[in-house]
Amino acid sequence: MLPAQPSPLFQRVVHAYNQHLLRRAFHAVWWRGVDVFTAEPRRPLLIYANHPGWWDPLLAFFVVRRTGRDGYMMGEETTLRTFRFFRWMGGFSVNRADARDVARSIRYASERLAAPSTALWIFPQGEIVPPDKRPLTFLPGTAHILRRTTACIAVPTAIRYEFHDQPRPEVFLDFGPGELIRGAEVHDITALTCHLQARLTERMDALRDAVWERRPEGFSLALRGQPSISDRYAAVVARLTGKRTG
Hints:
Elements: H1 8-25, E1 28-32, H2 36-39, E2 45-49, H3 56-67, E3 70-76, H4 77-82, H5 85-88, E4 91-94, H6 99-112, E5 118-122, H7 141-148, E6 151-162, E7 170-175, E8 179-182, H8 189-212, E9 220-224, H9 229-245
Parallel strand pairs: 1-7, 2-5, 2-6, 3-4, 3-5
Antiparallel strand pairs: 1-9, 6-7, 6-8
């Protein structure tokens, strides 16, 4: 297992560059329920999210930096060996082909959740999956981590990328509500895994409906993208029209 090696200086630099990348890639990043990160500052958070795309870990890093939490994230060992800087961002590895390594990663994750400032991100599907594929299928690691913790708030988090009337997609992040889970009360890993699957499915369905029906209630702008070609064209037309009418 490759442990995280958080570097505050590196994280500050990467946060600035990461925001630049997100602004270039997306028209906007929207979020809802983000107050879960600050509602109980003395409780660690386990954020379990669906995994619809390559950008998910960078969005997770953006969120924890913006909300002031100490972020950690479990990732595939092959990925962390290829992109070693992820460890400086709070990433640690798991090798699912090695049962002992999985056990070490679960223990390491639960130890991180002993600190109240922690926000640990998990993508329990274990791979990139289209956001509308049902049923959700989780690996059992998330439930095992929760069983080993004293107490933490588990937050179902839906991520969605959607094209609307702009040439670049928009990102939607929907958090919560959080659920306090005490490890001593977890007796059935399968039952807890099914419960987590159901909660995230509900969150993902609610986000899909809100996005498709253009219902912005509760969402706020987390990051505005760079002006698109469409934005620039509209600005030029407005200036030309203004000159003609003036």
